[in-house]
Amino acid sequence: MVRYVLRRLLSAIPTLFLIVTISFFLIRVAPGGPFDLERPLEAKVMENLQKVYLLDRPLWEQYLAYLGNVLQGDLGPSFYFRDFTVLELFAVGLPVSLELGFYALVLALLLGVTAGTFAALNQNRGTDTVLMGFATAGITIPNFVIAPVLTLIFGVWLGLLPVGGWGEGKWTHKILPVTTLALLQVSVVARLTRAAMIEALHSHHIRTARANGLPARVVVIVHALRGAILPVVSYLGPAAAALLTGSVVVETIFGIPGVGRYFVQAALNRDYTLVMGAVILVACLVIVFNLIVDIAYALLDPRVRLEDQ
Asked: The whole model's pTM is what?
């Protein structure tokens, strides 16, 4: 297991190198620049800015300089938020996004797996139809529609929950954004669980378990669910990365100070270093979560041997 983890981490190095390289040159060749304004800056000011941020050097020199800083753990200063470095911005916003995404992921797993299991146990019945109907609606309705509706109902009409802000991390401020962020994942997890559970319930070992007189609860939870959860586990890698890096829509609507807003602002303002920092952050999270998923997959399915991969 340890050798497998080390091997995967070492193999991620060239992947990250390619991601950084491709992203660096793509954003530099795109039209526009970080200091292109409606009213152009004076030539001397522009010259000084380009010198400070090394933009006056050839592109290959900029790339080597940036790569050297990244290897030292320095993602550089933000071009737009000029009083902060990229790491300082992430240090403030990332914990908030991680907490928000973590709660959303846990809620999605609990509700999605439960709903999918009940739907599979009642296949083609009313319960199945209703649950899958809600799941389909959850997939098709976007966050920017769900968020205002929840805010209007629970914040304005009923006055039960605050409609915005992080409130220094109070749980009442987390309910609406976490629910909004989790609804899509609940729907996806429910559909994956239902399909896998139906297949598992019709497998030979489940028929054998029932023939041996095992209680229905034991058959479903211990035997069927263990195999049915594997597609969900495979899906959790990219889902967790998407959730834990924050949702710009949810964070914007609820006024949450996470990192999601930085991603869009960096792209619009051609903030080269912040864009690169966001790319590196997402890439690292995807690699780490996929590794965790692979390990969890092996623990759930004894037929998988990580050392042999």
From this structure: 0.84
